[in-house]
Amino acid sequence: MNVPELTRVVLTLLAAWTAAQMCLWLRTPIPWMLGPLLVTAMASVLGAPTRSATYLRNGGQWVIGVALGLYFTPQVSALVVSLWWAVALTVVWALALGAVFGLWLQRQHAADFAHLPPKAWRATSYFASAIGGASEMTLLAERHGARTDLVAAAHSVRLVIVVLSVPFAMQWAQSHWGLQVDPLLLPGTRAAEGVSLLWLALVSAAGVGLMAWFKRTNPWFMGALLVSMGLALAGMSGTTLPTALTNAAQLVIGVSLGVRFQRGFIHVAPRWLASVALGTLAMMALSGGFGLFLAWATGLQPATLILGTSPGGIAEMAITAKVLQLGVPVVTAFQVCRLVAVLILVGPLFNWLNGPPKAA
């Protein structure tokens, strides 16, 4: 990284830190992620030279993955395993919801993109609506000749809308209704301990390296999460992460989300983006109802299941649960299982319905 690029990174981080301090003063939910996200997105759209360093984003995902994995004690994991049927229902729900949203987008904008080959247009609307990772869905869409700019833009809009609205809704519900979760799901009282932290960092780094070696999805988050979960299950974690470290991780993740919105973003098919925003709000409302149903069926706190079934990202929804203490292990388990299932199934499902992509 040259000096001008490094300067842009540093200035972006300073603006993000200032925005986080403002959100702390305003007492917004997840201030260390929302503040950086908002200020970076607005600055980027206005043409400011914002920059997110890949190594900082990866490091942030690593830290969050470790922090979330430490919640999975043997007692908590037994509770999560007992909810396997609810997790399976959530996977089916996510696939069905994405498919319906995709059909709506396909019909809503058929005239706007009539110049595209029919299969390419079906792939664009299908992968733009799937509730999965933006990069993975964009890659799958590219293999089928879709408009990848529309797919990437749709996932960016969906994620930001969810991240900006769900935490505020949860904070409002917590302040008005005094949400209480199972004490088993609350964080323990362990302190950050130097030697244990070093051991945790080394072992989780090995997990990240292994996931990257096998070219698994999101290795920095998933590798750290799985190793941290394994240590917690074995009773070998012995520490927690310093709050300053998890705050910094949230900040760089917020920045990495905000820089997606460059100056030309709003000029990418405005009607398409408006439809994605409307569809996202509908998916959130429907997923909220589904979460309430699961809460009734399982007896768990509704806020926990709403976060677990929300059409957002794993890290963002789990961070919300962590900051507001709304059942991190359950939220993480639901979001992780859904993401893995979607990544495995959406491609084969599209091929089954429309035929495989043509060989290059």
Cα Rg: 20 Å
Tell me the number of strands: 0
Question: Would you tell me the overall average pLDDT?
Answer: 86
| CA-CA gap between termini | 34 Å
Provide the β-strand percentage band.
Answer: under 5%
Q: What is the makeup of the main sheet?
A: none
Percent helix, as a range, is over 70%
Overall form: globular
Low-confidence stretches: none
Topology as a string of helices (H) and strands (E): HHHHHHHHHHHHHHH
Structural class of the helix and strand makeup? mainly alpha
Total individual domains: 1
Helix tally? 15
Topology:
Blueprint: H1 3-26, H2 31-45, H3 54-69, H4 74-81, H5 84-108, H6 118-129, H7 134-143, H8 148-177, H9 194-213, H10 219-233, H11 243-258, H12 270-298, H13 302-309, H14 314-324, H15 328-354
Helix pairs in contact: 1-2, 1-11, 2-11, 3-10, 3-11, 3-14, 5-6, 5-12, 5-15, 6-7, 6-8, 7-8, 8-12, 8-14, 9-10, 12-13, 13-15, 14-15
